[in-house]
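Contributing new records

If you add data, match the layout below exactly. Sequence lines come first and carry their own label; structure lines follow with theirs. Keep one chain per record. Anything else will be rejected by the validation script.
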Amino acid sequence: MPRFFSVIIDLARVIIVRRDRISSDRNRVIGTFVERLNVLQAAEEVLQRMEESGYFHDVDLESLRTTIVGFLREPTRNLLGLCSYSRMHKKAQSPGERTWRILLNRDLLYSQRHELHATIYHEFLHGILGCEEGHGEKFKRFESLWPL
């Protein structure tokens, strides 16, 4: 049975950390309500910019709105974001079916907003293009369009 506990930083901010049965040297961080709202708002802003750009007219961007957006385990030093694919990603008909979750470095919330948006865009591109593309030529072409 997993154990749940809270780490109280101050009265306005509680970070909930879940420990799994699988041992890990880094805690899973859910973040505060405000942090989760902020990261979801940023993801929505990126999707809106992608829709308005016209570059993704043939992509079902709406399907990405069901993707889980959360935070990487902490501490995270060198990684800004991660796109996790669903188990059925090779048979997926849309980016939302292909992408299970996007995890972000929580520190991005406290840096410049454009870094958070650029990282979310980068991870959405992985969801759109699939794992076979990786950071290939097509990925680099789309990534170079940012900021939209």
